[in-house]
Amino acid sequence: MISNATATYDRTTAFLARRYPLIAHLLTHRQREIIFAAAGLFVAIYVSQFLTFIVTANDLMSAQGSVIGGDFFAFWTAAQNTFVASPTLLYDADHFQEQMLKRLPERETILLYWQYPPTMMLLTAPAAALPYLPAYFAWLVSNTALLGAVLHRLWRNKTALILALTSLAAFQGWITGQTGLFTAALITTAAACADRRPVIAGIAAGILTFKPQLGLLIPIAFLAAGCWRAFAVAALTSFVFALASVAAFGVDTWLAFFEAIRAHSDRMQSTVFPYHKIISLYGGLKMLGAPNLLALCGQGLSTIALAGFVFHVWRRSSEWDLRTIALCAAIPLATPYALYYELPILIAPLFLVARRATLSTWLTGEKFALMALWLAPIALPGTDTIPGIPLSFLVAASAFFICARRVQSDLGSEGSPGLHRGA
Fold first, then answer.
1. Distance CA 144, CA 81 (A)
2. 314: number of Cβ within 10 Å
3. Running DSSP on this structure, what letter comes out for residue 416?
4. pLDDT, tens digit, 9 for 90 and up, residues 299-343
5. pLDDT tops 90 at residue 19
């Protein structure tokens, strides 16, 4: 597969050099300038679009009919009601709808639900202290700054950092108001620090349990590499995190949470679920019209294969960046329930692919593939027509392929000069 990709790249390059020499020259000798020009153009476009949504909004509703801030509206609503009445009521879909519609009375319904563990309430509770828009912007700034700080620790390259934080994957994290930037920072920290700073890695992995489906592969990675301290700290942190939520909100909230998960599982099997937004194989197969059982079986086999890949890399390699690339690239594909707003998780592994390429050598077509993925999320989530093209899955799968290719190429060259710096 890799040789076919190389041959395709060589043919494309030869065609451009023959038919469009100026374009070929720019792509091969002025890549830095092209990258920054594209970055500036697209940042200007989506920031202006974002600000237009806000300025033209009518009581938090954009002209397109969506809530400014997307899913953050659910987080903020939950925060406003966490200490007002029984937190258990947040898991009642009708009650939660009623609370959201109090703020947006002109809407008949809002397709948002509260289906997070009670630990999530501990994270969203501070939002209750602010009006909606200030809380939303504080959420975006703090999460972006956290991810930026983590990436900067991995590679102190300002150019790469700017491109990473202005990528369209990051933009999807902003406009959806979801936790993608925050979970990206936690997963990257857990992966990169597992053997060198196990306490920090374990705490990050433990906090990640507020989205438990994203942590499936982390214990496998820790066990494969013998990162026992990180594993133990993660287990302890998750226990203390859950215990704190019980102390704050009561054990009934956990019972209500499990019931809400059951109800959401039923929704995922209905025809109205937005499968075009799912980035795993499950969503890809559902978009192609596969029955639910076949999609689940395909996802199960995919998860097993991804777990094997992560186990192999973490067992064989001692290089923290190869381990981080493998784990972070595999996690979004390993769960059936990961939507396109989790794409920021893929920023760190692609960032580290660029780091390794810069410190050693670029693989054939790798630089252009990274440029394409920088832009690709602008097309998401795509059309919801079934059967249709599963764009969200294809973007995530492409990112994994690029990362797996780099890992496969570099596994036999551990100890290369310079590759351990920046940790």
1. 26
2. 25
3. -
4. 999 999 999 999 999 999 999 999 999 999 999 999 998 999 999
5. no
Minimal CA–CA distance to 176: which of 112, 80, 116? 112
Cα separation, 306 vs 217, whole angstroms: 8
How many helices and strands in the chain, by DSSP H and E?
A: 20, 0
Look-up of token digits 């998960």: 261
Q: Report the alpha-carbon distance of residue 223 to residue 216 in Å, rounded.
A: 12
The predicted structure's pLDDT at residue 417 = 41
Beta bridge mates, 61: 58, 67
Cα–Cα distance list, 393 to 206, 212, 403 (Å) = 27, 20, 15
Token duo for residue 386:
């079934």
Locate 215 and state its tokens. 């942590």
**How far is Cα of residue 354 from the mean position of the Cα atoms in its chain?**
18
3-class SS of residue 389: coil
Residue 355 φ/ψ, nearest 5 degrees:
-60, -50
Q: Would you kindly state where each structural domain of the chain is located, as residue ranges? A: 2-411
Backbone angles phi, psi at 415, to 5 degrees: 90, 5
Is residue 359 exposed (0-12), middle (13-18) or buried (19+ Cβ within 10 Å)?
middle
- Both tokens of 14, joined, read 């030869």
Token pair recorded at residue 94:
């009708």
Q: What is the phi/psi pair of residue 172, to 5°?
A: -65, -35
Structure-token pair, residue 275: 């499968």
The CA distance from 216 to 200, in Å, is: 19
Task: Answer whether 221's CB lies under 8 Å from 316's CB.
Answer: no
- Residues paired with residue 47 on neighbouring β-strands, in sequence order: none
pLDDT per position as a tens digit, 93-122: 888 888 888 888 777 678 788 989 999 999
How many CA atoms does the CB half-sphere of 184 hold within 13 Å? 33
